[in-house]
Amino acid sequence: MLKKFLTILGVKTFANYVRNWMAYPIIKFFKSGKYNRTIYQESFDMAVKDTYETLKNEITNSMVFIDKYDLRAYCVKRLREHLSEYKQTENNILCLEFGVWRGRSINYFSDELPEMKFIGFDSFHGIPEDWSGTGAPAGSFSAEGQIPTVNDNVKLQVGMIEETLPKFFEENLDVNIAFVHIDVDIYSTSKFILSNIKNRLLPGSIILFDDFCCFPGWKNGEYKALNEVFEREEYNYLGFGEMVSGITIK
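and the corresponding C-alpha cells:
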C-alpha cells in the first residue's frame, strides 16, 4: 500500500520521500530564521553578546575555555605552582567553596590538590531567594538537607553562609585564603562572601565564579558583587568558560 502510494507521488523510495517531503522543508524553514524564538533563547543569545562587548578587552587578554571544567583544571594548575610558597608560611592557608550542593566540585578540587585543606559552606536547602535572569526560584539546588560525602581534606560548615562564615573566621583568626569557588548564584550572598574574604586573600589567590556572565541579568549577579567590593586594579582576569570566570588577586 505504501509502495503504491509513493509510486503515485513519483517517489521511488521511502528515503527519498522523507528527504524531499519532510527533511528539506524543515531544514529550509529553520535556516530562514522565521521560526518562533522564545524569550529564553533570545535573552541568552543577547547576554552572550553583551558579555563579550562589555568584557572584550578582558576576554582577549585572558584564557578562554570551551567549558567550565577546563577553567577549573587551569585554576588547579595555577594553584599547584604556589604550593611550595603556601607550605612555608606560618598562617593556615585554606581553599573555600561556597555552594557545595552535592559535593562534586569540592571533591574534584580536593582530589586534585590533596595537600590543601578545603572548607565548604552551604545550607543544603537551596538558594534563599529567586535568581533573577534565570528560571531558578528560591529553594532551587536544594539537597533537601542531605550532607554529601566529601574527601578527607574537606570540612563542611552547614548553615546559612551569612551566619557560618563570620563565625568560622572568629574561630580561625590565622586563616589566609589561596582559592575560592563561589557558586551561590545570587548577588546578595556573593557580595557578602567577597566582603568577608577580601582581607584574607593573598597575592596570587584565585577566585572562581561559577555564574559570572553570559546569562540574562548577569550584570546584577556575581559581576556586580565583584565590582562593588574590589577596585579594578586589585585583580586580573584569569580566564572564561561558559558562564564561569576566574580572577587572580594582585
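(Above: one complete record from the training split.) The chain has two domains: 2-31, 47-249.
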